[in-house]
Amino acid sequence: MKAVTWQRWISIAVGGAALVLALQPVLAQPVLAQPVLAQPVLAQPVALPPGLPALPGLGEEMQRDPLSGLALSGYDPVAYQAEGRALAGRPDYELNYRGVVWRFATAANREAFRDAPEVYEPAFAGFDPLAVTQGRAVESDPRRFAILGSRLFLFRTEESRSRFVAEAALRASAEANWPEVSRQIAR
Question: What pTM does this model have?
Answer without folding.
Answer: 0.66
